[in-house]
Amino acid sequence: MVGHARSAELDRLLAAEPMDLTPVIRTPFDQAALETTARYRGFCDRSLEYWRGVLTTARPAMFPTRRFDSTDSFYMVKFAFPGMGDAVHQMSEELGVPSTAVFLASAVSALGKVLAIPRVTIEVTSGNRFTQADRSYVGSLTQRGVLSVDVCGGSFASIVQAAHRGLYMAYRHARYDPVSLARVVSEVARARETSLDLSCAFNDVRLAPESRRRGNGESPQPATTRDDARRIEWTGPLSTQENMKFYVRIGGDAYRPVVELTVDTRYVSREVVMDFFSAMEELLTAT
After folding, report:
1. φ, ψ dihedrals at 7, nearest 5°
2. Using an 8 Å Cβ cutoff, are 80 and 228 in contact?
3. Domains of the chain (ranges plus CATH)?
4. pLDDT category, 130, cuts 50, 70, 90?
5. What is the spatial distance between Cα 211 and Cα 217, in angstroms, rounded to a whole number?
6. Who has the most CB within 10 Å: 4, 59, 174, 209?
7. E strand map for the chain
8. Cβ–Cβ contacts within 10 Å for residue 232, how many?
9. Is the four-CA dihedral 74, 78, 79, 85 of positive or negative sign?
10. Which residue, 94, 106, 63, is CA-closest to 257?
């Protein structure tokens, strides 16, 4: 009886209309239509006004004037020290912020220290895939965000919190028409009678922990890198050149993060780079 029942059920399934298994995706045509709506245009307008506000108070030039002329000036520098993953994880837990905010705060604080400037304006990269509809889009939605962080006069914990808030605002306002943004940058520069130097950037490109990639829901654990040696590795000069003078990427993964800096040595010397890494390490290991 059981066999006959299963056979009858199978016959009904086979006789049924085939299920529509076409994945739900958003195409470039859908995206183009979305960008014509009043709601989307209003969102972009608010993003442009946010950029205008940040740029109005941004430091016009963060880096020293060019020290020499050369096409062989771009280098990639990788930096890691024993226990960096542990230190960032602990600080992230104590302050209740993502580890990305801790890394960003240490980068802008260290940069402010070595350049002797009180405020750092930095661009970040936003994937703009915060909703299910965004995640189903077949193309790239990545755009730049921007934030400014005051790096003097407060504790490192307060700078971490400011970086966290700034990241949220930068990501929130990283959707706009690029042509309109270029116009805003030009308008602000004319109003301030100066050029705006948007050549400093940050991006966290660490891989997710292995447990998260497997989808088993385990929480990431503190890193175990106590036996690793402190290392700074220079590669270059690079054959490809960046538009950025100072581009900090956080690579590796949650357990073994690596700071990857692409730097234009015409503006930032090797000595300053070494001081920058030392300042980052000091901030992240302070108790």
Report:
1. -65, -40
2. yes
3. 26-285 (3.30.559.30)
4. confident
5. 7
6. 174
7. 74-80, 119-126, 143-150, 200-204, 231-235, 246-252, 257-264
8. 15
9. positive
10. 106
